[in-house]
Amino acid sequence: MTDILSLPNWTVLSTEESENLIINAEYNIQPNTCLKCGSPSFYKHGPKSVTYRDSPVRGLPVVINAILKRYRCKDCGGTFIQPVTDIHPEMRMTVRCVRYIQSQCLKDTFTRIAENIGCDEKSIRSIAHEYINFLTTNYKPVLPEMVGIDETKIDGEMRFIITDIEKRKPIDMLVNREKPTISDYLWKHRDDPVEVVAMDMWTGYKSVVNAVYPNAVIVVDKFHVVRMANKAMDDIRVSLSKERVKAIGRDWMRRKSLLRMRYKKLDEKGKYNVDMWLENEPDIAIAHGLKELFYLIYEMPTRQEAEELLDEWLAIVPPEMNKSKKDFKPLVTIFKEWRNEILNYFDYRVTNGYTEALNGVAKVINRQGRGYNFETLRARLLFNKHHKPPYPHLRIDPDEEMTGKEFNDLLESLIRCECCLRLLTPFDYSVICITCTERFPHLKPDRYPPLPIEDSTPYSE
Predict the structure, then answer these.
(1) Which residues on neighbouring strands pair with residue 10, listed in sequence order?
(2) Taking the model in full, what pTM does it have?
(3) By the 8 A CB rule, do 65 and 24 touch?
(4) 402-424 pLDDT tens trace
(5) What CATH superfamily is the domain 146-221+351-368?
(6) Are 75 and 39 in contact (CB under 8 A)?
(7) Cβ atoms within 10 Å, residue 316
(8) Would you tell me how many other CB atoms lie within 10 Å of the CB of residue 30?
(9) Where are the domains positioned within the chain?
């Protein structure tokens, strides 16, 4: 019989397949002494059937029905069962089954793992928590030179996230974003080589970073800044639309996406529509022009040129568009307190985009698990390899030949499902994974031609 069990010193007697794969087996090694008193004098005292769970085989939960021998000691009179190897001492499971659960508990839900194993969810949760405690206890992160910090709201609580924005990987998640919590954490890492910290414009972060790392450079994420320019233009459009008749206001709402996009990225039809609109609405044309000019600041090659263009931009903002929260006043005001930190971007060219993306990953993880506790959420975020290629983005040499397998490995390292953020495999062949495509038939992802994994021919051929 084929050794489907694949465990040393075990012999498979028979197999049965139904909802579970039942493997009847016996252990071949006999004890030398009594397990209670150590006496070598004992005799067989009948068989005993013990059930163990094993890792899934062919998609079925596995039950090992072990036929073990029972013994009675001639000296102490005690009975004991034949000792076996490869079985976890505290669980009715094989060691590899426990390792399987440990590997899956950071990727899949506890309920689904329990279904795959065929055991109670509490057992999965117990093993997962013990494993997570082990990982957490032995995790000793060191803050790198370039750090990104941000917060995300999960189940009504603000969680603080810190990342390595150069290697693009998570470093840690804190239970809240209160200043004492962040200060205590950073103070423990005060000797780490932190040189650059990317963040949003929250004064709490700024004060803590300046206190712990006085020589570190703070860089305000450019997304938060340019977003304010777009919002200011949009608020002006909304306020002006209220002064128009409803039909015109609705037409403006339908076309608002054209104004939000960069003018240079519009197609010819889009540019024509925007030009016609702005020609008839001079106030919106001014707001749109201010937005486009502000975006140009971030295209300047040097800090000096960016600062000069910024000063010109601040000087031309009309007073009537710089007097409330519904225009450019918030954007103009931030440069009084954050000017240097915003302009530091042009010296280091780093953003907090990876940290922002990781916030979304954390929310997806929490949604999948229907409310993990903080320790589990943190472990799934930190220890499940939610990283991307090092900054800047990985570039491919067009002259270098790549085999089919190498190309698939590259795709696997770069692409995640746009629906559930799961890391795509070469078997998905799309921007949406097979699972999500089956669950949501209305999704129609763009597909690319599959490659055989073991293909050794150059991809260029």
Answers:
(1) 27
(2) 0.74
(3) yes
(4) 455 554 554 444 444 544 545 44
(5) Ribonuclease H-like superfamily/Ribonuclease H (3.30.420.10)
(6) yes
(7) 10
(8) 10
(9) 10-135, 146-221+351-368, 222-348, 396-439
